[in-house]
Design a protein that fits this description.
Number of domains: 2
Strand order of the largest sheet: 3-4-5
Order of helices and strands: HHEHHHHHHHHHHHHEHHHHHHEEHEH
Radius of gyration: 30 Å
Strand content: 5-15%
Largest sheet: 3 strands, mixed
Structural class: mainly alpha
Number of helices: 22
Helix content: 55-70%
Length: 525
């Protein structure tokens, strides 16, 4: 079959099929590009893996372990060719709460179950259905995660312990500010964290340098050097060793999840892991596809690849894994051509974790908190909010309600509320119905018998229970002394509630014994 190609178009607007096909055997230039890109992704991944692990309340090596699995296993599997997987800031809050509730050993069991669910959903070809999730709910979910993440990391930024969940952390910020102002060590940690955030913002503006060294690596490396040289009194990452942190879940860990009173919470955590990890990975894949002209993502295979990665992470007792847009975009911009770049990034993570574990012990926690506060801020849809409010106010309300619900309650309940609001909003917007009234103002004596003709009322649209009150108000407002003929043939949908209500209205328009001064409406289905 011949494909249509426009006669004239800008190169960036050409279809994928119009570009030259790549050779099945990678050339030396492709391998060189993948090797370079893998080093860039590795440098981006190290501070993020460590920072996410520390913020999640688990050993730093577990973050690196998740990144290694994301590169060596998920990177080899089919799905999306260029996106990179690892621990993500979006799951930090949920992981922290799970560890506090069930213990570090049970984390592997939760991640393992979530990975098996992802494998099942991929096998059932449910990956593409994640694209049907309202973008407002996803943005609201990320915004809520960002707010909770920022509120919690502000405490870590000054080497303090967060008091609890989202509401407690927000309520404690005034006291945190007062305590920080009175503590020299807290002010020192704040200076380290604030400098890290400033460098994260300013470094990308230096285009040539930013292409060589990623901002997170530069910011954390400089903060580490300053703390080491001046021996500043700030908290640093605790090092245990890669093999020492591997804790496969045992029978006691699974038993802890099914204890009386814990089943519902554990189930909610597993579902939240599954939903968020799957949605974030597949939305990331869609975004990465727009950045390159290579093969498109197979969503079902990508979901199975993520499930396989999370299954292995669960067996190792590591953090849950998602595809991460920060690392994925860095991979594409660095010139990656095949999946070899993300596999090699996993190799470099393994070499670093095995050969240089002591290097982590010099990293100040305040610098990692600065990285995560910056990451949390980027999760907030600051630039998108104003145009969304102007053009799609209902979507903006769903986004804001989802974010607020996550901060006020928890991840699972907040996302569930957002999904319900999105469904209700769609149902309300699609259930438009209006009445076309003909002959209401017709004078007497216009028919052959000298009486007025019946008033024709024609309903058009979708009649659902959401619009029923307004529909009945309009019908009740019709004059009682006129014969009414109701025509429902213009309705595309009539639900049971509306049909029953219109039948009752018809009975009320009849006379006392079914005869009357009014003719029964003719309801045409």
């Amino acid at each position: 079959m011949r494909r249509f190609r426009p006669a004239r178009s800008h190169p960036s607007q050409q279809s994928i099929s119009s570009r030259p096909a790549r050779s099945a055997r990678p050339s030396l230039s492709v391998l060189r590009a993948d090797f370079t890109a893998s080093l860039v992704v590795f440098l981006v991944a190290v501070p993020l893996c460590v920072g996410v692990a520390v913020a999640s309340g688990v050993p730093a090596e577990l973050g690196l372990l998740t990144g290694i699995v994301g590169g060596l296993l998920t990177g080899l599997l089919p799905g999306s060719s260029l996106q990179v997987s690892g621990p993500a800031a979006g799951l930090t809050v949920l992981v922290y709460e799970a560890v506090q509730e069930y213990g570090l050993g049970a984390l592997g069991a939760l991640v393992l179950i979530a990975g098996l669910l992802q494998l099942a959903m991929g096998a059932l070809r449910l990956g593409r259905w994640f694209r049907a999730i309202s973008i407002a709910v996803v943005q609201g979910m990320l915004a809520g995660i960002g707010l909770v993440l920022i509120a919690g990391q502000l405490y870590t930024l000054v080497d303090a312990e967060a008091p609890g969940g989202g509401p407690a952390n927000l309520a404690g910020l005034p006291r945190l500010a007062a305590d920080t102002a009175a503590s020299q060590s807290a002010l020192t940690a704040l200076a380290i964290g604030a400098s890290t955030m400033a460098l994260l913002v300013l470094w990308p503006r230096w285009g040539r340098a930013a292409r060589v060294l990623p901002a997170p690596l530069v910011a954390v490396a400089l903060a580490t050097a300053v703390v080491f040289v001046w021996d500043l009194p700030v908290a640093r990452v605790e090092v245990q060793g890669l093999l020492d942190v591997v804790q496969p879940p045992g029978g006691a860990d699974f038993a802890r999840l099914v204890e009386a009173g814990a089943v519902a919470g554990a189930l909610g955590t597993v579902l939240a892991f599954t939903l968020i990890a799957s949605a974030e990975s597949l939305f990331s894949a869609a975004a990465v596809d727009r950045l390159h002209d290579g093969p498109r993502t197979d969503y079902d295979k990508e979901l199975m690849a993520q499930g396989a990665g999370n299954t292995v992470c669960g067996l190792l007792g590591a953090l849950p894994m998602t595809a991460v847009i920060v690392r994925s975009s860095a991979n594409v911009r660095a010139g990656a051509r095949t999946k070899a770049s993300r596999v090699l990034h996993g190799v470099w993570l393994l070499v670093f974790a095995a050969a240089f574990p002591a290097a982590l012990g010099a990293v100040p926690i305040a610098a990692l908190a600065g990285v995560l506060v910056h990451a949390g801020w980027k999760l907030l849809p600051v630039k998108e909010w104003r145009p969304l409010w102007r053009e799609h106010r209902g979507e903006a309300v769903v986004l804001a309600a989802t974010a607020v619900a996550i901060v006020a309650t928890n991840m699972f309940e907040g996302v569930l509320l957002g999904l319900l609001m999105a469904i209700a909003k769609s149902a309300w917007e699609t259930s438009h119905v209006h009445l076309e009234i003909v002959g209401l103002d017709e004078p007497e004596g216009t028919s052959a018998s000298g009486s007025r003709r019946p008033v024709l009322v024609r309903a058009v649209g979708n009649a659902t229970f959401l619009r029923l009150p307004k529909l009945l108000d309009q019908l009740e407002a019709l004059p009682r002394d006129r014969e009414i003929e109701l025509d429902l043939s213009g309705l595309r949908h009539l639900d049971h509630a509306c049909a029953a209500a219109l039948g009752n209205w018809e009975e009320q328009r009849r006379g006392p014994e079914g005869t009357a001064q009014h003719t029964a409406p003719s309801i045409a289905p």
